[in-house]
Specification:
heterodimer, A: alpha+beta, 3 helices, B: 284 residues
Chain lengths: 109, 284
C-alpha cells in the first residue's frame, strides 16, 4: 500500500489499517525437539500464514513441523515485571539442579 | 564438459554453419530434430515451460506487493528453473550432441523454444501472474503425476521430485486465487480480467501431436490430452470458490510447441540469455 492511500472517510490510513495481521512462527527441527520461535510473517488467513511461514522460514532448513499463532494471542510479560518475575535467585543454590550428573545416553535433556 | 567443446560439437554437427549463439547467425530450423528424435523434442517442451515461466516469475523478485510473497514467488521460480535444469540435462543426453543444460537454456533462440505461449506472456499485474501460475500449476501436477510413473527412470525420478514442489505451488496459488477473487471489488475485477485474458492460452497445454505420441510410446512422455477434464474439475472448483466466472472457450492461440511464439518471448530471452552470451563459459 502506498502512503497516499485514503480510507473511505477521506482521512489518511494508518499502518494498522493497511497491513495484514501479524503471525508468530514456530519451527521444529526434528521429531521430539521443541518448537522454537523463528520470527513473524504478515498474512490474511491461517492457511495464508502457514504458507508464508513455510516460504520464509522452512524452505532451507530441515524443518519437520510449523506452528503459526496470531501475534495478538501471545500474552507477554511486561518490562516492569523483570524484577519480581525474573530475579534469578543466584543466592539460593538449591534452586539450581547442578549437583546431578546426567546419565550417559540421555539426550535432549 | 567445457563450453568450448560443446561449441565444437555443435559446429561439427551443424557443418559449422548454424551456430545458434553467434549474433546474426541463422538459427536452426524450427522443425529440426522433430522426426529424428521425438523424445528430445518432448523433453524440450516439458523443460521450456518451466524455464520460461521460472524466468517470468523471477522478474517479480524485489517487486512483489509484500515481502512474504516476494520470497514465495522467488521460491516457485527457483523450483521451476531447477526442474528445467534437470530436464534440459536429460534432453541434452538424449540428443547426444554434447549440449549441456546451459547450452540448451542460453544458446537457443526463440524459434527453437518449445514452451506453450501461456508461460511467455508478460507478468502483467499481480492478478495476471497469480492466475496464470494457478492455471499452469493445476496442469503441471497432473503432468508430473503421470511422468512419475513412466518407464524412463531418469525422467520418472525428476518428475517425482518436481511433483512435491508442484503440489505446494498449486496449494499456494489456489489460495491466492481465492483471496483475490473473493476479496475486494478491485481484486475481484483484476482477477476476472486476468482469467478472461489468459483462458484462451490454456487450450495449448492440452494439444498433442505425433512427437508427443512417439515419446509416450517410448515410455518417456505424457499424454496431455488424457487429463483435460480432470484439470477442468480442479480449476472449476477453485474458481467457483473464488467467485470467478469461467470464460467461454473460443479462439485459442497455439504454436509454441513448434517454435511459433508471441513477440514477448524474444525480448524475454534477450534479457535472460544476455549474460551467458556475453561471457560464454562463465562460472560463479
Amino acid at each position: 500500500m502506498t502512503k497516499d492511500t485514503v480510507s473511505a472517510t477521506g482521512g489518511a490510513t494508518t499502518a494498522a489499517e493497511t497491513q495484514w495481521d501479524l503471525w508468530e512462527v514456530f519451527t521444529q527441527e526434528g521429531e521430539g525437539a521443541p518448537h522454537e520461535h523463528a520470527g513473524s510473517v504478515h498474512a490474511t488467513t491461517p492457511e495464508h500464514a502457514m504458507q508464508n511461514a513455510r516460504d520464509v522460514y522452512a524452505r532451507r532448513g530441515k524443518i519437520v513441523s510449523l506452528w503459526v499463532v496470531p501475534s495478538g494471542a501471545i500474552i507477554a510479560s511486561a518490562p516492569s515485571d523483570s524484577g519480581p518475575f525474573f530475579d534469578p535467585g543466584n543466592d539460593k543454590a538449591y534452586r539450581h539442579p547442578q549437583f546431578y550428573k546426567t546419565p550417559r545416553g540421555v539426550r535432549g535433556l | 564438459m567445457s563450453r568450448e567443446s560443446e561449441m565444437g560439437n555443435r559446429e561439427s554437427s551443424n557443418g559449422g554453419s548454424t551456430d545458434g549463439w553467434v549474433p546474426g547467425a541463422k538459427p536452426a530450423t524450427a522443425t529440426s530434430g522433430i522426426a529424428q528424435n521425438p523424445v528430445f523434442e518432448h523433453l524440450l517442451r516439458l523443460a521450456d515451460d518451466r524455464l520460461v515461466l521460472g524466468h517470468r516469475l523471477s522478474e517479480w523478485c524485489g517487486h512483489a506487493p509484500i515481502l512474504e510473497e516476494d520470497i514465495a514467488l522467488a521460491n516457485i521460480a527457483l523450483d521451476l528453473i531447477g526442474q528445467a535444469s534437470m530436464l534440459l540435462k536429460l534432453a541434452g543426453e538424449v540428443e547426444g550432441k554434447g549440449r549441456s543444460e546451459d547450452a540448451l537454456a542460453y544458446f537457443r533462440d526463440a524459434i527453437e523454444f518449445r514452451n506453450a505461449q501461456l508461460v511467455e506472456l508478460p507478468n502483467g499485474d499481480f492478478a495476471v501472474t497469480i492466475v496464470r501460475q494457478f492455471l499452469f500449476d493445476a496442469w503441471d501436477v497432473l503432468v508430473l503425476e503421470r511422468l512419475a510413473a513412466v518407464s524412463n527412470e531418469a525422467l520418472a525420478g525428476i518428475a517425482a521430485k518436481a511433483l512435491k514442489e508442484a503440489r505446494y505451488h498449486l496449494r499456494h496459488t489456489a489460495e491466492w486465487v481465492r483471496m483475490l477473487g473473493d476479496g475486494t471489488a478491485e481484486s475481484h475485477a483484476r482477477a476476472q480480467r486476468a482469467l478472461d485474458d489468459l483462458w484462451p492460452y490454456t487450450a495449448e497445454l492440452f494439444l498433442a501431436d505425433a512427437v508427443d505420441a512417439e515419446a509416450v510410446a517410448a515410455g518417456s512422455g505424457v499424454d496431455v490430452e488424457s487429463f483435460r477434464s480432470r484439470w477442468r474439475q480442479t480449476v472449476e472448483q477453485v474458481l467457483g470458490e473464488a467467485t470467478l466466472a469461467i470464460p467461454k472457450d473460443g479462439f485459442a492461440p497455439r504454436g509454441g510447441r513448434t517454435g511459433r511464439h508471441t513477440e514477448y518471448l524474444g525480448r524475454m530471452l534477450a534479457d535472460m540469455q544476455s549474460l551467458a552470451r556475453a561471457h560464454p563459459g562463465a562460472a560463479w
